[in-house]
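Each field is set out as follows.
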Amino acid sequence: MAPMIAFTAESLSTPITTIARPVLIVEDGTIVRLESRHGVELPSGVDLVSFNDCTIAPGFIDIHIHGSAGYDVMQADQSARSHFEHFLARHGVTSYYPTTVTAPLDITLTALERLADAMESAEGRGGGRPLGVHLEGPFLSHARRGVHSPEDLLSPTIVMFDKFWQAARGHIRVMTIAPELDGASDVIAEATRRGVCVSIGHSDATLEFARRGVAVGARHATHTFILGEVLTNENVTADVIADGFHVAPTVIDLLFKAKGPDNIVLITDAISAAGMPDGNYKLGLLEVDVQGGKCVRDGRLAGSALIMDRAVQNVMNFAKCDLQHALRAATANPARVVGAQKKGVLEPGADADFVVLTAEGEVRATVINGTLLQ
C-alpha cells in the first residue's frame, strides 16, 4: 500500500465549488480526504506537498484529440505514444480519448485494434491515460466532411458499426455521426444502447434530422453548430475548439452565454503538429500544412495545434469567464458527457488526477493516480 500524501495550495476548484487553503489527502491513487486546511491535523507520517499561491483543479480531459508532439493516434508505429502522453500531462491533460479520422476500412480497423491495446495496457504508465476511443468518421456527411477522405466515407449500418466495435474490443466511448444519413437513426440507437456517447457532427442536417438524432440517443455535438437544436436543447452538450481559428472568439462568448458553463466541453482536435514548429504533419493518412499554428489541407482547416491549457486560457479571454467556469469545460463536463466516473472532479473517492495552475491558467504541476509527474 502506497503511503498517504497530502497536497495543499492557495485554493482548490472541485470545479463546482472553490475551497480556500485546501488539504487534499491521497492514498493508493484515490482521494480519501478533502477539506480546508484551517485547523486540520494531518495523520502522522503523511508527506505534505505545498503549491503555495496556486490552484489545484481536476486534471483536464480531452475527448477529441488525434495526436500531438509529432505523434498521430492512427500511426502504425506506437513507440512514440509514451512521449505523446507525457506531453499531454505537462499541459494538464490526465485523460484523453484518441480520435480516429476517416481512412480505408482495413486501416481504421487495424488502428482500432492498436488503440484497444493501448486502453488495456495503460496501467502503470506515466502521462495522460487513454480512457476510450472517439470514432470520428466514417459516418459523416459528404457536404460537411471537412478534410475527411470522401472515398472512405460509409453509410451507417449496424453491421458496419459492429465491425468497428469488435475491432476496438468495446472501447469505443464516443462516436461522431451525421444524423441525416440513411441508417443513422438505427446506428445511433444501437451505439447508445452499448454506452457510447453519440455526437452529431460533420453534418448537413436540417433541424428535423438533428432532432431525430437526439430523439434516438444522440446527446452531444461535435464542432458545434447545428444551431437551433444544439443551442436550445438543454439535454445536448456542445464542444468547441477554442483556438481562435475554428470559431471566432465572439462566437465562443455567445456559446457560453447560450449553453451555460455546465453544457460546454473544450476539445483540442489536436493533430501531430501540436507542440511542434510550423511544417508538414500527418492526420491519419493526410498531409497537413501548419503555419502560424493554423492547420490546413487544400484550403480547409484540418484539426488544430491547440493544447488544452491554452484552450482554458483562451476561453477565459474569449468568454470573459473566470478560471473556475473555464475549468468546468475541460474537466467535469467532458467526464460527465463520456461517463468517466471518478474523473473530472475532486472529492473523496475520486481518482487522484489533478493539475496545479496559476491564476492565469498556466500549468505548474500535474498529478496522475496520486503521483506527481516530474
Observations:
- The first helix runs from residue 81 to 90.
